[in-house]
Design brief:
The structure is a homodimer. Chain A is of the alpha/beta class. Chain A contains 14 helices and 14 strands. In chain A, helix 7 links the parallel strand 3 and strand 4.
């Protein structure tokens, strides 16, 4: 039969990255294409021990239906953590546990978006959430990303041009795909503009704890005096991605809506993994674990950036990320990175072309994203060498 | 600030049942209100052992990002299981693992529904999925449920009256909330009407394996020659609800759409629990485990129904379910069960009023749902006694 697919899904293509994920099983490809955390960072032994204790002491609690809002001990732990370390204030805010950062975007979209509503997003931005918004038939409007955050003039122009804009989508720290961090000044300016033009902000911060250089910058949520910021975090990069756990912070007035949205979607998130996160954060050296993760990623980033500096043609530009998993390199303005990336894959090195991260995928894009968290040091050196040679062939 | 909530969520109220779930923590209330499987049925020791082996042998595989389609070994196991035991044919069909049966409904809605599309549903039906459809701004049209399935004449009338109907939602076995099973004849008639009027069918079968009386009836999916049936199953009642795992079977032509819908929602389901289901089904006595579960529920159902027969006023009618977790009792036609249920709760016994399961919640409803899987035998006897007394006060 001929299927009539919903309008909402007509405009969503499969994620190039998720498709590439399958290709990466080929052990001969050096992959800078993924977005996985390094498996070295998973606290495997503690996870195994906490799990076996939980199944011994409270198996029913781990296996029976749980609450849609999340596992209370983890919710309290996260609220205390964000209050102490990030300056959050939970007087007017609430925190729910969700099934990964992706679901935070899905629930936010479900609660706020009507068909054809406009979402303003950094460009380039995270394809996963852009596709989530597309799946609600939202209209995406991109604002160019600079090394210190969105171009504020262009953001204001976009807000003026789209009076029906509902939501501003921002990844403030070590953005995916650019690795850029939005400055404190720009965070203030963005919040101010959001107030002025009456839009909500979804502040998506899956990488924030993985900072290996520079100083932390307060979240936009900490500037939020009128409850327009929904803040999303993730355990995927701090604990393990397959936990499928994240959290969402929002004004208490939204509790009934968020509860219903969660119930309609997957009822609740897995209890065992929520218990593990709670136990790990309260009884193990969570701070030390994060410090170790940051150290590892800092070393890998330094290695990759050093090799890129040595090997890449000088016409290829890139910034030094202060955390996270990614760096984006740019071929000279006007060039299209897609054939470059394709040739790289043919030579055994995978990266992701910038076109995967933009609103209008029909326009050529000169960026390509490299991931340094998963390849080995040898793969970083060898892979950058291959790509470097290619940059010289392209630009030489 | 004043939040502008999406139209889609304006019409969705919180699940009365999920709210009641909190109340059930009061140990003094005898709850026939839940929908939980009995914790006695969880194969705790095997789950614990498989988990510790998995963390020993393949921790990274359990903790790193997995595939959106699901964990391949479990997908293959489930396809073999459905082929052998349920007569499914995977020549033209595919199976994905999803985050519980609830997500099967969410993804189906995402793929097929436009705003204001009509969904025809059994009435009463499962509030969770009805709310999922409401969250896509679908218009629900109810067709009265009879002890052998939907009233076929009224189904045809509803299809005629709603030429824009997109989807038919059916729980064929031990339906929630009625406990009714759709007969083989009606399954054929429903499929035929769906073809004739060009609607898809979502066949939701979370309870199918929990049959303790009568003979299995082939799924509508096994009648499906043109790919219009999407079939959903769940591990919540056969393994453990907090796994948050289910599966969805659909025509292969829909693979790209279902993949994208899953990616946009929560990327993938937890790997460890998928591995546990696979290991349990292939290396443990799954058949024996299900037989034990069925025996337990059969005994509990028989006890509850026997007590209801003894204690309830003859004006209260109910049918004998052949499986599942629920029985629905009906006060005389025209009576409203809500004040009855409220008085029951005041006297210490929780049930769910029929109004929770209908399309138009403003009309009085005479049914109330009782769950027999979670209360103890003593609670069943005592709770039915209290409710029985109440029926005599109401109808005597």
């Amino acid at each position: 039969m001929e299927y009539i697919i919903s309008d909402r899904l007509q405009g969503v293509k499969g994620s190039i990255i998720r498709e590439l994920f399958k290709l990466m099983k080929d052990p001969n490809i050096i992959s800078f294409g993924g977005g996985n955390p390094s498996a070295e960072t998973f606290p495997v032994e503690d996870i195994a021990r906490i799990t076996s204790e939980a199944f011994e002491k409270n198996p029913i609690g781990m296996l029976q239906y749980g609450l849609s809002e999340g596992y209370d001990p983890l919710r309290e732990t996260m609220k205390a953590h964000l209050t102490k370390n990030e300056g959050f204030d939970f007087t007017d805010n609430e925190l729910f546990i969700v099934s990964g950062g992706q679901q935070a975007a899905d629930l936010t979209a479900k609660v706020f978006l009507n068909e054809a509503d406009v979402i303003i997003t950094e460009e380039p931005s995270f394809i996963g959430c852009m596709n989530t918004f597309r799946s609600y038939n939202a209209k995406l409007v991109g604002v160019p990303m600079r090394p210190d955050g969105m171009d504020i003039d262009k953001l204001e122009a976009a807000l003026k041009a789209n009076p029906d804009a509902k939501l501003l989508y921002i990844i403030p720290n070590f953005q995916n795909p650019t690795g850029y961090t939005t400055s404190a000044e720009k965070r203030k300016a963005i919040y101010k503009l959001a107030r002025q033009y009456g839009v909500m902000i979804l502040e998506d911060n899956p990488y924030g704890e993985i900072r290996f250089a520079g100083n932390p910058i307060p979240a936009i949520k900490t500037l939020d005096t009128d409850g327009r910021v929904v803040y999303a975090g993730s355990f995927s990069k701090t604990m393990a991605p397959a936990f499928r756990l994240g959290f969402i912070v929002f004004n208490r007035a939204l509790i009934p809506r968020m509860t219903v949205a969660k119930q309609c979607t997957d009822v609740h998130s897995t209890v065992l993994f929520q218990h593990i996160c709670h136990e790990y954060m309260t009884t193990r050296d969570y701070k030390g674990h994060i410090a170790q993760t940051c150290e590892l990623y800092g070393k890998k980033a330094a290695l990759m950036l050093g090799e890129m500096k040595k090997r890449f043609h000088k016409g290829v530009v890139f910034n030094k990320p202060e955390g996270g998993l990614f760096v984006m390199a740019f071929l000279p303005e006007g060039m299209d990175s897609t054939p470059f990336v394709e040739e790289g894959i043919r030579r055994g090195v995978a990266t992701i072309p910038g076109v995967a991260f933009v609103v209008d995928q029909s326009r050529p894009n000169n960026g390509f994203r490299l991931n340094y968290s998963t390849p080995t040091d040898e793969q970083i050196v060898r892979g950058v060498e291959i790509l470097g040679k290619l940059t010289h062939e392209y630009l030489g």
